[in-house]
Write a structure and sequence with these properties.
Helix content is 36%, strand content 17%. It has 224 residues and is α/β, with parallel strands linked by helices. The strands form 3 sheets. The protein has a 5-stranded mixed sheet with strand order 5-4-3-8-9, covered by helices on one side. The two termini are 33 Å apart.
C-alpha cells in the first residue's frame, strides 16, 4: 500500500546532516561534529516517550551499544520530547544509552524519515493491521491495541507532555542510520519500509552488529 510519505530518507553514501541537540546527561549539547573524524555513529531517531515500541527499542539499543563500541562505533538515541520530560522518564528508568532530545522532530526531517499522511486509506489499513513487534504479546493485535497492551505490561501512564507529543507527532515513523567517521551514511533502516506490518519493529542486535561490521569493513577498505 502507498503510505504517501512526505519525505524521502537520505541515501547511502550521502553526507549525514549536521545536528546539535540537548543532551540528557547534562553535558550541554551533542552534535554530529562531536563524532566526525573520531568515531562512526549509530544514530536512532525515535518519537516521543508515549511510544511503547520506542521505549523498548531504547532498552535494546542500550544493550547493543557495547558491541558497537567494540567496533569503534558510538551510539546516540534521539527522543522527540522536551528535555525535562525525558529527564523525568529516565530518572525512574535509567539507561546507559547516550540520549539527546528533539521535540520538534527537526532531525527526523533532516534525515528524511517519513511522516505518512493520515489518509482514509491509511487509517483503514491500520485498522486491519495486526502487530507483535517485540514478541511479548500472546498474538498479534491491531496496532492501537498492541501499543496499549505493551503500555499495560510496563505500567506506563502517559502525562500531559506525552499526550501533546502524540497529538503533534503521529504517524511519524522512526529511523536508524549508521554514519561513518567521515560523516557519510553507510546504512539505514526506516520503519515500515516493507509495509505496515513493520510498525514498531526495530532491527535486532544481530542485524545492527552485522550491518555495522559490513559498513566498518568498507570504511577501513576505503570503499565508498
Amino acid at each position: 500500500m502507498n503510505m504517501q510519505p512526505t519525505l524521502v530518507p537520505i541515501a547511502l553514501g550521502e553526507r549525514a546532516p549536521d545536528f546539535s541537540l540537548p543532551a540528557l546527561d547534562g553535558s550541554g549539547s551533542v552534535s554530529l561534529a562531536d563524532f566526525r573524524g573520531r568515531n562512526s555513529l549509530f544514530l536512532a531517531l525515535f518519537v516521543g516517550l508515549w511510544c511503547p515500541f520506542c521505549r523498548r527499542a531504547i532498552a535494546q539499543m542500550a544493550a547493543t551499544a557495547p558491541q558497537l563500541q567494540a567496533l569503534g562505533i558510538e551510539t546516540l538515541g534521539v527522543v522527540a520530547t522536551e528535555l525535562e520530560n525525558a529527564r523525568l522518564y529516565f530518572k525512574f528508568r535509567p539507561s546507559r544509552l547516550r540520549i539527546a532530545t528533539d521535540p520538534t522532530l527537526s532531525t527526523h526531517r533532516a534525515y528524511g524519515v517519513p511522516k505518512p499522511l493520515p489518509t482514509p486509506e491509511l487509517m483503514a489499513a491500520l485498522a486491519e493491521t495486526r502487530v507483535n513487534p517485540t514478541g511479548e504479546l500472546a498474538e498479534p493485535l491491531p496496532v492501537r491495541q498492541a501499543a496499549e497492551a505493551l503500555a499495560q505490561l510496563d505500567g506506563y501512564i502517559e502525562n500531559q507532555t506525552d499526550h501533546a507529543d502524540l497529538e503533534r507527532q503521529w504517524p511519524q515513523l522512526k529511523g536508524q542510520f549508521l554514519v561513518d567517521r567521515e560523516g557519510l551514511v553507510r546504512w539505514t533502516h526506516i520503519e515500515c519500509s516493507e509495509g505496515l506490518a513493520g510498525i514498531g519493529k526495530f532491527p535486532s542486535a544481530q542485524e545492527i552488529v552485522a550491518a555495522a561490521e559490513t559498513a566498518l569493513g568498507r570504511e577501513k577498505g576505503g570503499s565508498h
